[in-house]
């Protein structure tokens, strides 16, 4: 076929198809534009369709639908679409127009759409218990412990809306559309209540009604960057709280002071309260001078994963319901319990690497010897300058190891509305920076909450078991402290050869310590540091269980009764094994070894009952009242044996039966306290704007048995005014509260003051004479506190809390010396008066910009500690004459002493030792070039070890699943004293001593040089002249850092959540002039704050955390 014929045929075919198409289009258009009029009454739908076919060109195709339904139609001049919509409404029939055909079919049944989501506040913190409801229906749910929810949206889902509500937040409306996953952010409502906080005795109250400062800490604040003692994780997060971690290392005790030290002789540490029940914090202390044993404490046993939230009651009014235990404030801990709903499982694993944070500066360029020659000494490093090739390059870093902390935890929660269960298990396993230092803790907790009698009766039972053991936990002091030889090791010797710390002695047939006799170091009794680590073993094994039960019953909607009981029991075994060939000073002369065994039993039983009233009267008045009674019973006993293994005994076989009968010592110490109390709290509110609160507690304490006073009463009263609840204060003040309170609370006084006591001399095995003059009328150490403050929210994003307080602690109990003529050595006096005045400030900002969020919080606290009166009116009980006590000398270290004076502080350090000066004020040097010293000079004030200000700045940045947290902390003011640096100078191992030798000596009197060795051995001997080893304690650091990423749950089909984090603590010391960490303390007791005597360095930690949520 030629091309011409082909194209003609194609044109004809194309024209035919086009004509057909145009005809169909015309017909369709005519059909669609046709107007239909129907006037039918009670006829089947099929007849209506036939009428439509008559009036139009449309034909119906029925795909199995029922058209027998009768209906009436009265329509005039309507289009086909209008007619069909009218006829088929309220039926299950759908239609489709295809050309001139109308296809009828059944509607597809719509199914509910499953949606999921998460509800958070502006800080990205999950909101637990938020209501999520499909608008206009009863379909809804509540967010779980992770803030997540899931529900089925009924059809038509595309037009549905979700209503999200939570008390105290603005409601949010979200359109469903085609989405199945939602992230909802709630903003606080200015007009709503601030929230509910846990106060004393576990009583929950509206925050706006409180007349005192309460600061809340969330669980994630203490679990993001973990510490084996979770109390250390509060550092920098609460204003007015000073936390000093002890130098005992992982799991060590901590010193926690709220609003300054208050007592001359009693503890100033905070009270710990778990689920409303006060916990006696057994433990603490620690070695300080000779014994270097570290110490843990009861609060360090708590698993931080079990903590739901914490409230810090810094003021006396806040803790007044605890009476004689309330003066130091309280830290309220609320633990987790089961949540109704599906089973929730959380797994977390944390690994950290540890190394020393702040250390002194060492030298290694001058070798062993004295006066510049090798032969002068085998222990000092005042020898000649070593050639680079002859230097071993030793520093204590060669002895330290990289420590590790492994923390693993699992929690399980679930239940029904009537019964919820919670279970957790956790372990902490650590090896420290000192060889053979270990700490292990295992926690198991079970808790069940049940509801009966239409939820009127609530029962809650829990049980916890803790097993904790540690090895070679070292604090500070010289005996059995490996830091002493590690720091002072002579720099001309080869440290590497001593790593093999023991060698076989054929004569004794024992492995004995390998260490040069020249390196004993006199009074320091130095040994091979590895021998100390492996052959001077200290071990503690502790088993503890806590059983708790509580019940509450709603008598009326506004009246309930509740009761609680807790048994806290622990027993521990401490052993010290000093192997044969250890230094005989610490083995009491024993050559076969020395053994100590101490068994301690600690028990606390607590019970209380309360009647609770929570009632409103009309729209204006409200009443919240609690009346109750409690019993607190605390008992501790310790039985110990110690002594050298007898000469004909078996070396290094450690038991109490093989001890030397002439030198072994058996001791039994213990005490038993009981406090019976009644208490009441009444809060009256008016128009949700004005609240008046009054509390009272009466204590009958066993310590005052035998005293004319049988009990003591502790009252408090407070007023809170919330003007923003009544008046519109504009956008600037979305919330404003003014508050004030007055409280009178107490401190537990020392035991046995009202009964004659005798002291047993275990060494001499005799009873000492009674040396205390009998006390007369015993009074409590009463603290009267005044507090005013303001809490505000500005422009919704800024929060402000400021408090001023003044606390006067009177009736201080202490025992100054008496003159010999009195026939007594000391007398108990109750005359001291200490005042703490201070300011607490917290300023926060939080905002969310779509996917990016930023929260910042700055805390500042200032405290002035002052002794108003010491003993101005005290009289000699024998002569009746004034005692004229102008000062009180309290134990210090070496030549540094705590001396208390009127107008001073409880932390003032003095010394009377100094270099001798001639009449012209110049340092005296004898003809041999030696400097002269005196210990009988005038008192030299070194400073107070207390800080004047503490501050912290915390920032959290959030972007989608990424979270970055930074915490900077600082301390301003105060001093610290390093006896470690003094000994390093004395032995010539410090960098400053080497620098002085490099300079040709030390310039004195502004004109003459003295030999560096003679200078430093003068000012560094006997723990040094403190004025030369006192440093500013001001310091700033990067306290915490965390960088985490939460993977989208949809990656795991919404079955699992996974967060991976990098965490660190003490990462960067920005500013510090001291040769040790000023925030570390050797003891949680009264003395030794700010004093370093071969204290274990604080720790820097770096690690990572993985958390799974199912």
Helix and strand composition category = mainly beta
Number of helices: 9
Instruction: Determine the fraction of residues in helical runs and give it as a percent range.
Output: under 10%
Share of β-strand residues: over 45%
Q: Could you give the distance between the termini?
A: 76 Å
Shape, principal axes of CA atoms? elongated
Sequence stretches where pLDDT stays below 50 over 5 or more residues? 5-11, 13-29
Number of β-strand runs: 60
Q: How confident overall, as mean pLDDT?
A: 87
Largest sheet entry? 22 strands, antiparallel, barrel
Q: Mind telling me the C-alpha Rg?
A: 39 Å
Structural features, described:
The structure is a single chain. With 1110 residues, the chain is mostly beta strands. 8% of the residues lie in helices and 47% in strands. It has 9 helices and 60 strands. The strands form 15 sheets. It has a 22-stranded antiparallel beta barrel. Strands 15-20-21-18-19 form a 5-stranded mixed β-sheet. The protein has a 4-stranded antiparallel β-sheet with strand order 8-7-10-11, with no helix packed on it. Helix 7 runs antiparallel to helix 9.
């Amino acid at each position: 076929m030629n091309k011409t014929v082909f194209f003609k045929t194609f044109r004809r075919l194309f024209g035919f198809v086009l004509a057909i198409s145009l005809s169909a289009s015309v017909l369709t258009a005519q059909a669609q534009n046709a107007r239909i009029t129907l006037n039918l009454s009670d006829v089947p739908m099929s007849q209506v369709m036939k009428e439509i076919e008559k009036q139009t060109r449309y034909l119906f195709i029925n795909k199995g639908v029922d058209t027998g339904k009768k209906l009436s139609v009265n329509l005039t001049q309507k289009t086909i679409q209008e007619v069909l919509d009218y006829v088929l409404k309220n039926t299950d029939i759908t239609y489709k127009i295809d050309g001139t055909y109308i296809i009828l079919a059944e509607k597809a049944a719509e199914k509910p759409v499953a949606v999921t989501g998460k509800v958070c506040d502006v800080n990205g913190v999950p909101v637990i218990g938020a209501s999520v409801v499909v608008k206009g229906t009863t379909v809804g749910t509540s967010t779980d412990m992770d803030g997540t929810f899931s529900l089925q949206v009924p059809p038509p889902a595309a037009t549905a809306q979700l209503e999200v509500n939570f008390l105290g937040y603005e409601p949010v409306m979200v359109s469903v559309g085609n989405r199945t996953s939602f992230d909802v952010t709630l903003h606080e409502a200015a007009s709503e209540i601030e929230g509910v906080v846990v106060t004393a005795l576990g009583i929950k109250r509206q925050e706006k009604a409180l007349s005192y400062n309460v600061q809340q800490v969330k669980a994630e604040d203490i679990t993001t960057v973990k510490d084996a003692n979770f109390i250390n994780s509060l550092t920098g997060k609460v204003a007015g709280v000073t936390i000093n971690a002890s130098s005992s290392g992982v799991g060590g005790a901590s010193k926690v002071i709220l609003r300054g030290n208050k007592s001359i002789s009693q503890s100033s540490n905070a009270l710990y309260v778990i689920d409303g029940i006060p916990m006696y914090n057994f433990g603490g202390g620690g070695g300080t001078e000779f014994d270097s044993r570290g110490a843990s404490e009861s609060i360090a046993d708590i698993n931080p994963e079990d903590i739901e939230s914490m409230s810090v009651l810094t003021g006396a009014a806040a803790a007044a319901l605890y009476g004689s235990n309330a003066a130091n404030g309280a830290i309220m801990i609320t633990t987790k319990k089961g949540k109704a709903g599906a089973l929730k499982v959380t797994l977390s694993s944390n690994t950290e690497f540890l190394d020393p944070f702040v250390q002194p500066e060492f030298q290694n360029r001058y070798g062993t010897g004295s006066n510049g020659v090798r032969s002068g000494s085998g222990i000092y490093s005042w020898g000649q300058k070593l050639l680079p090739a002859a230097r071993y390059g030793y520093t204590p870093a060669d002895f330290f190891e990289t420590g590790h902390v492994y923390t693993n935890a699992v929690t399980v929660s679930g239940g029904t509305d009537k019964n919820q269960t919670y279970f957790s298990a956790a372990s902490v396993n650590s090896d420290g920076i000192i060889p053979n230092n270990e700490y292990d803790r295992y926690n198991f907790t079970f808790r069940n909450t049940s509801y009966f009698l239409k939820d009127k009766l609530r029962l809650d039972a829990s049980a916890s078991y803790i097993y904790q053991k540690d090895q070679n936990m070292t604090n500070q002091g010289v005996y059995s402290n490996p830091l002493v030889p590690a720091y002072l090791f002579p720099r001309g010797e080869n440290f590497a050869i001593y790593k093999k710390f023991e060698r076989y002695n054929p004569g004794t047939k024992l492995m004995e310590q390998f260490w040069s006799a020249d390196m004993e170091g006199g009074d320091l009794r130095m040994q091979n540091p590895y021998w100390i680590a492996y052959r001077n073993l200290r071990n503690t094994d502790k088993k503890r269980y806590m059983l708790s039960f509580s019940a509450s019953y709603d008598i009326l909607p506004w009246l309930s009764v509740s009761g609680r009981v807790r048994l806290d029991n622990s027993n521990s075994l401490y052993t010290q094994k000093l192997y044969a060939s250890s230094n005989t000073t610490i083995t009491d002369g024993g050559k076969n070894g020395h053994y100590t065994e101490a068994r301690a039993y600690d028990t606390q039983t607590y019970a209380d009952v309360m009647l609770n009233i929570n009632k409103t009267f009309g729209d204006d008045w409200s009443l919240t009242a609690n009346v109750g009674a409690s019993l607190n019973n605390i008992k501790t006993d310790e039985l110990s044996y110690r002594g050298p293994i007898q000469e004909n005994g078996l070396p290094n076989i450690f038991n109490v039966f093989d001890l030397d009968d002439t030198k072994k010592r058996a001791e039994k110490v213990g005490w038993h306290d009981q406090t019976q109390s009644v208490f009441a709290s009444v809060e009256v509110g008016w128009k949700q704007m004005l609240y008046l609160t009054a509390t009272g507690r009466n204590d009958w304490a066993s310590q005052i048995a035998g005293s004319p006073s049988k009990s003591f009463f502790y009252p408090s009263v407070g007023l809170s005014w919330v003007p923003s609840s009544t008046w519109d204060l504009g956008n600037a003040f979305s919330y404003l509260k003014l508050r004030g309170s007055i409280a009178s609370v107490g401190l537990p006084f020392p035991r046995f003051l009202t009964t004659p006591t005798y002291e047993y001399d275990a060494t001499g095995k005799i009873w000492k004479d009674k040396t205390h003059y009998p006390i007369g009328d015993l009074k409590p150490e009463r603290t009267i506190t005044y507090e005013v403050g303001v809490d505000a929210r500005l422009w919704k994003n800024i929060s402000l809390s400021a408090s001023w307080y003044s606390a006067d602690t009177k009736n201080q109990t202490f025992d100054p010396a008496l003159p010999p003529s009195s026939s007594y050595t000391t007398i108990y006096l109750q005359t001291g008066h200490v005042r703490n005045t201070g300011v607490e400030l917290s300023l926060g900002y939080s905002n969310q910009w779509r996917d990016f969020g930023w929260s910042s919080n700055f805390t500042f606290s200032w405290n002035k500690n002052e002794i108003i009166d010491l003993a101005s009116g005290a009289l000699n009980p024998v002569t009746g004459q004034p005692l004229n006590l102008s000062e009180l000398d309290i134990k210090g270290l070496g030549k540094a002493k705590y001396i208390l004076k009127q107008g001073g502080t409880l932390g003032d350090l003095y010394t009377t030792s100094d270099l001798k000066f001639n009449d012209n004020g110049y340092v005296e040097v004898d003809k041999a070039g030696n400097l002269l010293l005196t210990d009988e000079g005038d008192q030299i004030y070194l400073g107070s070890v207390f800080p004047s200000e503490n501050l912290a700045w915390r920032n959290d940045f959030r972007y989608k699943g990424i979270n970055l947290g930074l915490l900077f902390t600082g301390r301003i003011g105060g001093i610290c004293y390093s006896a470690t640096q003094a000994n390093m100078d004395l032995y010539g191992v410090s960098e400053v001593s080497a620098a002085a030798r490099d300079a040709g000596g030390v310039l004195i009197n502004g004109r003459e040089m003295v030999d560096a060795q003679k200078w430093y051995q003068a000012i560094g001997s006997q723990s040094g002249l403190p004025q030369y080893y006192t440093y500013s304690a001001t310091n700033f650091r990067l306290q915490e850092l965390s960088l985490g990423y939460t993977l989208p749950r949809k990656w795991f089909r919404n079955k699992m959540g996974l967060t991976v984090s990098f965490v660190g603590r003490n990462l960067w010391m920005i500013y510090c002039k001291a040769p040790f960490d000023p925030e570390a303390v050797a003891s949680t007791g009264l003395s030794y704050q700010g004093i370093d005597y071969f204290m274990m360095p604080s720790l820097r930690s770096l690690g990572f955390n993985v958390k799974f949520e199912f």
